[in-house]
Amino acid sequence: MALTAALALGLEGALFGPLRRRGARIVLVIASFGAALALRSLMAFAWGPEPQYYTREIAMAREILPGVRVTADQLFVLALTAVLMVGLHLLLTYTTLGRAMRAASENPSLLAVTGIDPAVVARWTCLIGGGLAAVAGVFIGLTVQVRPLLGFELLLPLFAAVILGGIGSVYGALAGSLVVGVAEALAVPLVGAEYRAAVAFLVLLAVLLVRPRGIAGVGE
Asked: In Å, how far are 2, 4, 56, 140 from 134, measured between CA atoms?
């Protein structure tokens, strides 16, 4: 978590910060894709493209409900994810930094008028986001495997979840992630694993047709 947070902070200072100061918001999205591609290639060069495993022992699934079987690793991931979600909620709701982060997502110019530097808030956001991204990567590695293309395969579902939840809303992104995740899981026995992403985007289109702002998006 510390190393990934430091990497995110370095990218903020070297790449995203200068672009944000120039007002190049669309370029930020393109730059993030480029940075991800470069980092993915560096990882493949350093450690190879072969998948790695935390353990090669076979995880035995136990039935907790009729027709529902989970492994110990999956239960651990669910429990720790719930703890992190509660911690993030407390941070955003009850701390000065959390309130500043929410204000920066709404109106960075107004935040600067109050005497809070949006650049400092952006750096803290990168630190926290980088640390949480590291935890998410470990969780996926525990339940599946670790490979250089892992992040790229999750990029489109994550993008769909953020749009579905509403741009700028942390809780909307959480709700969108749950909707997309459940839709993909239910799609596997119905249409096959290869169509999981297509089902997620169909759900995204259906929700946006009814509510263009997303689940928790705020109207203009």
From this structure: 9, 6, 21, 10
Instruction: Determine contact, residues 54/112, Cβ cutoff 8 Å.
Output: no
Task: Report the alpha-carbon distance of residue 134 to residue 148 in Å, rounded.
Answer: 14
Amino acid at the residue 131? G
Q: How far apart are CA 118 and CA 110, in angstroms?
A: 10
Q: What is the pLDDT of residues 28-75, one digit of tens each?
A: 878 888 888 888 888 888 888 888 888 878 777 888 778 778 888 888
Please give the Cα distance from 192 to 203 (Å, whole number). 16
DSSP 146: B
The pair of structure tokens assigned to 204 is 């995204």
135, 182 Cβ separation under 8 angstroms: no
Distance from C-alpha of 203 to C-alpha of 160, rounded to nearest angstrom: 9
Q: Please tell me the pTM assigned to this model.
A: 0.81
Residue 159 tokens read as: 């993008």
